[in-house]
Amino acid sequence: MKIHDFPFAPNPRKLRTYLGEKGIEIPFVLVNLVNGDQKKPEFLAKNPLGNTPVLELDDGTCLTESLAIIEYLEELHPDPPMIGETPLERARVRRLERIAELGVVSAVARYVHGTKSPLPGIEANPAVAKAALESLAAPLEVLDLETADRPFIAGSRPTIADCTLFAGFEFAKFAGLELGDVAAGFPNLKRWHAAFSQRPSTRVSFPS
Ligand SMILES: N[C@@H](CCC(=O)N[C@@H](CS)C(=O)NCC(=O)O)C(=O)O
Fold it and tell me: Whose Cα sits closest to atom 13 in ligand 1?
């Protein structure tokens, strides 16, 4: 297996954090998004949508969509469980992960690209950035309240909800945005982010 990715982009970052928490080692192949590698024919043959990450299996099969890749790896490596152990736990983890992805990471991406996109060919759009910033308060408030009495987003141990939200917090920094300081501030998420940032799973380095 190998993973084609760009380690500082949020969906690859989410997957890398997940791999780190699980202790799964898979080699990485750099797709330099800033240079436009994702639009080259050899990469489009692996993912016609031209985005990362892509998990390439040993027989050449390519899996795309970060959450689908994570769910596949979770089935191959169930321990430690990162999507809960019972149907109710799994529903709770998935609920929080979806709020993190659809409410936070998507809005952060619109904010970053609307402010000053690191990718070529995307024009800044202040109106999009402003709307994205305003939309962040509600999901962050839900996650902040959920995290008031626990060390991780979904409970007493890390789950995919932490991996996704962490990727959003880190990507926001590209545009100088600290998510814990949005709106009136989110003290529980600030505490969570400071603690989660210390975990070895969150360290990234460029692949060679
Ligand atoms: N829903 C996809 C989104 C993948 C995606 O948009 N990846 C971004 C990096 S976070 C990318 O590679 N963008 C390159 C481009 O759109 O040109 C997933 O979860 O994997």
Answer: 51
Q: Is the pTM of this model over 0.90?
A: yes
Query: 123 and 42, same structural domain?
Result: no
> In angstroms, what is the span from residue 141 Cα to ligand 1's centroid?
26
- Please indicate, yes or no, if residue 182 is contained in any of the structural domains: yes
pLDDT tens-place string over residues 94-153: 999 999 999 999 999 999 999 987 777 778 899 999 999 999 999 999 999 999 999 999
- What are 23's two structure tokens? 């202790």
Residue 32 exposure: Cα atoms within 13 Å on the Cβ side:
5
**Segments forming the whole domain that contains residue 178:** 87-201
Atom of ligand 1 nearest to the CA of 51: 12
Residue nearest to atom 1 of ligand 1 (CA): 65
Within a domain: 207:
no
**Phi-psi sector, 155: left (phi>0), alpha (psi -120 to 50), beta:** left
Instruction: Give per-residue pLDDT as tens, 26-61.
Output: 999 999 999 999 999 999 999 999 999 999 999 999
